[in-house]
Structures are given as C-alpha cells and as structure tokens.
Amino acid sequence: MQVRIEDDFDLEKIADSGQCFRFNECGDGYSIVAGDKYLFVKKTGEREYDFSCDEKEFKGFWKNYFDLETSYSDIRHRIDKEQDEYLFRASEFGKGIRILRQDPWEMLISFIISQRKNIPAIKAAIEKLCALAGDKIAEDTEGKDVYSFPTPLQLSKVPMEQLSACSLGYRDKYVHRAALDVVSGVCDLDSYKKLTDEELMEKLLELFGVGVKVANCEILFGYHRLDAFPKDVWINRVLEQRYPEGFLFEKYAPYNGVMQQYLFFYSRSEGTGN
DNA sequence: AGGCAGGTTCTTA
DNA sequence: TAAGAACCTGCC
Questions:
Q1: Which CATH architecture has domain A2-93?
Q2: Average pLDDT, integer, range A2-29
Q3: Do A37 and A151 meet the contact criterion of CB atoms below 8 Å apart?
Q4: Residues 197-236 of A with CB under 7 A from strand C
Q5: Residues 98-137 of A with CB under 7 A from strand C
Q6: Of A26, A53, A79, A197, whose CB has the highest number of CB atoms within 10 Å?
Q7: What's the pLDDT at A212?
Q8: Domain ranges in chain A?
C-alpha cells in the first residue's frame, strides 16, 4: 500500500543507525524483518513510500514499528544551535532517524550478541540464528529465504553445539541462558513493561551476559524508553572529545536516547563507517 | 601477524 | 570495590 510520511523518515539512515540488524538495502528498496513479519519498502516520491503489506498489517503493526505517531522533528528542534553546536550538526546529519518500536525479546538477544562485534558480524550471526531456529516466512525481492526471529521456545530448544555454529563465540552461553530464563519465566520481559526505567535496568542486569551497555540498548530499543543513553566506544569518544564539560542530559530529557542516536550516527560517519 | 570490534564476567588485590 | 585479564570469531 502507498504511505505518505510527513515527519523525519529516512530508510537508509535508519538501516545504518545500529538499532536494527535485519533492515537491509535490497534492490531498489529495503527488506525488513521484525519478529515473524517481513516487509519490503520502496521510496516512490518525496514523502511517498510503497509498503509491501496491506492496510490492516500497516495499521496493526508497521505504523507502530516505525513509531509514526511520534514527531522526531519536534524532538530534533529541542536542540539549540548556539548552545550545542555539535549536537545540532549531528541532528541535521541524522535527520530521518527514528527509534523503531522493536520487540524486547529480539532486541535482548541481538544486543547480547552485539558485544565486542562489529555490525556486519552481528548481522551475520543473527541471520544464522534465524535460519537455524526460526521459520521460513517469505522470500525477499532477490529470491532469498527470509526467516523469522526465533521465539524464546524455539531458541531454548537449540543445543549448545548448534548455537556455537552461529558465530556467537563466547556469547553462545549467554544466548542459551537468556532463552532458558525467558521460557522458564525467571525473566518475564512482558511484565517488565510496567517497570520504571531504573527498575527495568535492575532486572536486566540480573541476566547472564547483560551489562550496563547492553541493558541500555534493550531499554532504548526494546522498550522504547527514549531517555536511555547507551554508552559504547563511539559515544564515549564523543563525550570525551566534544563534551569535556558534560553533556546536557537534563535539557534533553526525556529524549536523551534520540540524541544518542544522532551522536552515534554522526560520529561513525566520521570514523570507519563499517 | 597482531590488534581490534557497539562488553561482560571472572579473577585478583 | 576496583582495576586487569580472559573471552570467541572474523576481518583488516
């Protein structure tokens, strides 16, 4: 169906923003997998897009996935050019980035895998995991099979030896444990939705293989708490070099996470890209 | 060839 | 409680 989007919306930037790992350029559009849903999106005009789904699925899923009810333009305009010149530049550069409303389970596993890996390696590992334990749900426009992200139950049934074959490295035991804990109910991701950001952080840190960085990514991308501010090597470099006096967290609350995305995207563009 | 990549856990003082 | 080492794997 045709969709018109008035707010900031740039598929290429979202794909490269590091928040999603199954969102890839494919032919003349983008191939996106979220949970057990597949979408192909093509830009057809200035603000016009062709979504491969029907209206029902758009309203029931993808509209929410792309967080189309939130104005990222408004959030961006909270930045004062005079007061914070670097962030202003970063936000102009990253205009079009949105924080997707992704699934907590999928994000948890994805960011556990992400530690000490570069983005291509993360993507490769996740695709192997999906092909191994997920279901075939579609074929992309290039004819490749598309697999759903494994459910907790599906993943929990994968033996360790097979998990190791997904290039997870030492993270295989973290992934395995997370699946077992979610299936057993020791970790109830759904019930965590009602917790405050602080309580949520506390619960996530109890998980094996989850530290502060991964927990913050889960809070921002899995629970869509837009104030969470994950600090990775890139962001730490920016904070050291550009904000020796400190970043204005108070000013940008409750949208520090969006600012983090602009900083991350901008700093990476200046570095090696990947 | 050795270092490093979107960190976390384990070990040691 | 706080540094430092170890950790899988793939790519430069």
A1: 2-Layer Sandwich (3.30)
A2: 96
A3: no
A4: none
A5: 116-118, 120-121
A6: A79
A7: 96
A8: 2-93, 104-222
CA at A47, C1' at B4: how many angstroms apart? 41
Amino acid occupying residue A196: T
Q: Rounded to an integer, what distance in angstroms lies between the CA atom of residue A253 and that of residue A104?
A: 22
Judge if the beta carbon of A167 is closer than 7 A to nucleic acid strand C. yes
Whether any strand C atom is under 7 angstroms from the Cβ of A169: the reply reads yes
Instruction: Give the domain A104-222 fold.
Output: Endonuclease III; domain 1 (1.10.340)
- The Cα–Cα gap between A144 and A138 comes to 8
The reported pLDDT for the residue numbered A273 is 45
Place of tokens 């032919």: A27
Q: How far is the CA of A170 from the C1' of C7 (A)?
A: 6
pLDDT band of residue A87 (cuts 50, 70, 90) is very high
The neighbouring-strand residues paired with A171 are none
Angle between helices A172-184 and A104-114 (to 10 degrees): 160
